[in-house]
Design goal:
Largest interface: A-B, 18 and 20 residues
Order of helices and strands of chain A: EHEEEHEHEHHEHHEHEEHEHEHE
Strand order of the largest sheet of chain A: 10-9-8-13-11-12
Shape of chain A: globular
Helix content of chain A: 25-40%
Low-confidence stretches of chain A: none
Mean pLDDT of chain A: 91
Strand content of chain A: 25-35%
Strand content of chain B: 15-25%
Structural class of chain B: alpha/beta
Low-confidence stretches of chain B: 210-234
Helix content of chain B: 40-55%
Distance between the termini of chain B: 66 Å
Largest sheet of chain B: 6 strands, mixed
Radius of gyration of chain A: 19 Å
Shape of chain B: globular
CATH class of the largest domain in chain A: Alpha Beta
Radius of gyration of chain B: 26 Å
Structural class of chain A: alpha/beta
Distance between the termini of chain A: 23 Å
Oligomer: heterodimer
Number of strands of chain B: 16
Chain lengths: ~290, ~550
């Protein structure tokens, strides 16, 4: 049996990384008015943020159509030894996992029995990193059950906090969840957000100013990991300089096994807007 | 004349003349101001506290000593404002509690009652400071207890207590260094002495300080009405109209119909209850709950012209109160005290449901907090007093309210803002309380204002009209130039731990001054995020928050 990992473009995996681990990435879509782009396929990050700032049209996003999943599934399942774990963005944030489930019903019974769709209850590189770890585990001969077990462990151990420059984008995209109470203040208030255990965007705390917010994020991680070595990814939407500063601060305050950067892609970028910073941490012991 | 037993009638005079004497001395007490800044005025606060008691007493027709005490106690509680006002209210609430079952009292009873009051006051003070009203009250009570056995005559007893109180007051500068530096005795202690002195006047039969009930009479307290009224139904109200008016006695009419206060009261008695008649030579004030208010007015019009007639339908009022009281509750309500339109708006935008106007020079009363609490349909109510001199009145209201009220003792509006930023409606009350309290230490509060007199304080020589800077309510900077004073103040406030400076400009701050300052600050503190907001607060050109 061979296990293949399928995920979606909200996982922020680059083409190179996806290819390296044999992960299939199904793109979501970004629409500027009439124009539809496949996330990470016909629109890259630079172009997207440039359009976001200059086009005057507010973009919208949509999940992949079921047939797009069906196509990928059929292609992979042609090899009769293949079993698919299809791991997707939180169902509370997107209908992607649902589209995958529908695609599964379009398959023959035999094929369908070889597809496991999983709601990751997560997003961005927290999702992407879990997909990588599952691919690595599968590559060394793990069973589907063992992979799903690993998913649970990783999902439980990952922590994600983020801060947006403005809540406007989350609000427009309707993905603000429980954070709606923060709108409308006359001061520069930075809510610190997370994706909670149910996969919803949830406020953790709110503070004044960007720098205080980043300090608070580090404090939250310090409390979560309590001196353990950590594997860190700093994500940003057009805020590389701040991301680098944040990474440097994390490096000096934490025992880190790895610190990397990633850009937040167009679909998530539509919902958080430019200037967002997010940090994903796994305990170093949980990832290889 | 020796008075060895005090009855209700005499006690009423003590409260009334004590209050009149306090009212006459407001300015003298206000002048005992430690800081050269417009301060939470102790005399004003104590007087407003006491007048609320006098008003309650005047509205009541209680005769017995203990019953009058209960009314006085309630008035003190709802009127309490400012720290000295709250302590004064506790001192006499304790006093009244001790005598609540008595019909008359002796000097021994009075001494014990004074001690009871001191105990009650100490209970509400978390960190009692020597050299304040508390010291004066405690030493007076201790002296009274030790000597009441020997002095059974009330005037002599009171005279001796006053001497002890004055002696203690004069020692307060030795106990509290800030008083010595400022060259004053403690203002709250002085206020208490003034009340005692007024009481002695009453004991000596000197009621020349006639009480101006027109200025002291306050409308019936809506908050207390509401609290009392939810417990019975509108149909239970026997006399439906709260009727208040004044009679300006006219010589012509008096010829035909001479006015006698007691006869007049007897004539009105059958029309209703809660009857109150207060008369002097030319005016009579009447308050009655009557079913047929016209009958009352007809009776009164026999003696003169009717003025300021106010008739409220209490059944309708009651229905409104009950319907709002039983409306759907939300989990949280927030009450904040703010001075300045901009600051009030800011607090509202941050989620405060009620903003009570007030602060440094105008301290809200416990009653204002109670009213605000009653208006809020919330399970848990947080109060941000935003001034150290307002915290106790808020706590008093919290104690009285039938709701769950949590007072977060914020000492500045800057702390209040920080706390409200941290508030999260989806978290538990306990979690929010802890989180909001934790923000107080994370914000440094600064304030820039103008000195109102020359003084030497904390090693600074200050001239009238100098700009002075306070850091966490301590005077740290004085300079004749506002810009320089502001820069020096910011320097005192900022450390490595701070990433953000918020500048709230006051109503007296010119836009040029603020812009120049913001420019300089941006150049000087490149790493700092600086935000400016039009606070519009009085007194302070600038309020600053470093966090």
């Amino acid at each position: 049996m061979k296990i293949k990992i399928v995920t979606d473009s909200t996982s922020d995996l680059s083409k190179e990384i996806a290819a390296q681990y044999g992960i299939e990435v199904v793109p979501l879509k970004v629409m500027f008015g009439e124009q539809t782009y496949l996330d990470g396929v016909d629109i890259d990050i630079e172009t997207f943020y440039h359009k976001l700032a200059n086009s005057g049209v507010f973009p919208t996003t949509s999940q992949p159509a079921p047939f797009e999943f069906e196509e990928v599934y059929r292609r992979l399942l042609a090899d009769e030894e293949v079993h698919i774990i299809s791991l997707h963005v939180s169902a509370k944030l997107s209908g992607t996992a649902q589209a995958a489930e529908i695609a599964k019903t379009m398959l023959s019974d035999d094929q369908a029995s070889r597809v496991t769709v999983v709601d990751s209850k997560s997003v961005v590189y927290a999702l992407g990193r879990i997909a990588i770890e599952l691919a690595k585990k599968a590559a060394v001969g793990a069973t589907v059950e063992q992979c799903l077990e690993l998913f649970k462990t990783l999902r439980a151990s990952v922590r994600l906090y983020f801060v947006v420059d403005t809540l406007e984008f989350l609000q427009r995209g309707g993905r603000i969840g429980k954070a709606s109470a923060f709108i409308g203040s006359l001061l520069n208030i930075k809510p610190i957000l997370t994706v909670d255990g149910e996969g919803l965007v949830a406020p953790v705390e709110r503070v004044r100013g960007q720098k205080n917010a980043l300090k608070k994020i580090r404090d939250l991680f310090a409390a979560d990991f309590d001196g353990q070595a950590v594997d860190v990814t700093v994500l940003h939407s057009k805020a590389l300089e701040s991301a680098q500063q944040l990474a440097a601060d994390i490096n000096s305050e934490f025992q880190t096994s790895s610190v990397e950067y990633a850009s937040i892609g167009p679909v998530i970028g539509t919902h958080v807007g430019p200037g967002a910073l997010a940090v994903v941490m796994f305990p170093a012991s949980a990832v290889q | 004349m020796t008075i060895e037993r005090m009855d209700g009638a005499l006690f009423r005079q003590l409260i009334a003349v004590g209050g009149a004497h306090l009212q006459a001395q407001i300015e003298a007490i206000n002048a005992l101001n430690v800081f050269p800044v417009p301060d939470g005025d102790t005399g004003t606060n104590m007087n407003l506290t006491w007048q609320a008691a006098v008003t309650e007493m005047n509205k009541s027709n209680a005769v017995e000593l203990g019953a009058i005490g209960q009314v006085v106690s309630r008035g003190l509680m709802i009127g309490a404002r400012g720290n000295s006002g709250v302590i004064l209210s506790q001192l006499f609430r304790g006093f009244c509690k001790y005598i609540e079952k008595m019909q008359t009292m002796t000097t021994v009873d009075m001494a014990a009652a004074m001690q009871y009051g001191v105990d009650m006051a100490y209970r509400v003070i978390q960190r009692p400071t020597e050299g304040t009203i508390l010291t004066v009250a405690r030493e007076s009570a201790r002296f009274a207890l030790a000597h009441a056995n020997e002095i059974s005559s009330f005037p002599e007893f009171m005279q001796a207590v006053i001497e002890k109180a004055r002696e203690t007051l004069n020692k307060t500068p030795d106990m509290l260094p800030v008083l010595k530096q400022a060259g004053v005795v403690d203002a709250g202690g002085k206020g208490l002495l003034v009340v005692y002195e007024g009481m002695l006047r009453a004991l000596n039969g000197d009621t020349s300080l006639a009480i101006d009930y027109e200025t002291t009479a306050v409308n019936v307290q809506p908050a207390m009405h509401e609290m009392a009224q939810v417990h019975f139904s509108s149909g239970d109200i026997e006399y439906g109209y709260c009727t208040e008016f004044m009679i300006r006695l006219s010589a012509d009419k008096l010829k035909a119909c001479p006015f006698d206060e007691q006869n007049f009261r007897n004539a009105l008695e059958p029309f209703g209850d809660s009857l109150l008649v207060v008369a002097d030579e030319s005016l009579v004030k009447v308050h009655i709950h009557a079913e047929w208010p016209g009958h009352v007015l007809n009776e009164a019009a026999k003696y003169g012209e009717l003025e300021r007639i106010k008739i409220d339908n209490m059944r309708l009022q009651h229905e409104e109160i009950v319907s709002t009281s039983t409306a759907v509750q939300k989990p949280y309500g927030v009450i904040a005290v703010a001075a300045g339109d901009g600051m009030a708006q800011l607090f509202k935008s941050l989620g405060a449901d009620q903003v009570i106007s007030g602060g440094q020079s105008m301290n809200p009363s416990a009653e204002q907090f109670l009213t605000a609490c009653d208006r809020l349909q919330a399970e848990t109510i947080f109060i941000l007093p935003n001034n150290s001199n307002v915290i106790m009145a808020a706590r008093q209201a919290a104690e009285m309210s039938t709701r769950k009220v949590i007072v977060l003792p914020s000492k500045s509006m800057q702390q209040g803002v920080a706390a409200l930023v941290a508030f999260q409606a989806e978290q538990s009350a306990e979690h929010n309380e802890q989180n909001m309290l934790a923000t107080f230490d994370q914000v440094q509060s600064g304030a820039l204002t103008i000195a109102v007199r020359d003084t030497d304080l904390d090693g600074l020589t200050i001239k009238t009209n100098d700009f002075i800077g306070l850091h966490n309510n301590r005077l740290v900077v004085a300079h004749e130039d506002a810009h320089q004073a502001a820069l020096a103040l910011v320097e005192k406030m900022i450390s490595d731990e701070h990433f953000m400076l918020t500048v709230y400009s006051g109503e007296d701050a010119s836009p040029q001054f603020v812009q120049t300052l913001l420019d300089t600050l941006t150049q000087t503190y490149g790493d700092l995020e600086i935000e400016h907001y039009l606070g519009g607060q009085p007194v302070y050109q600038l309020l600053l928050a470093a966090e």
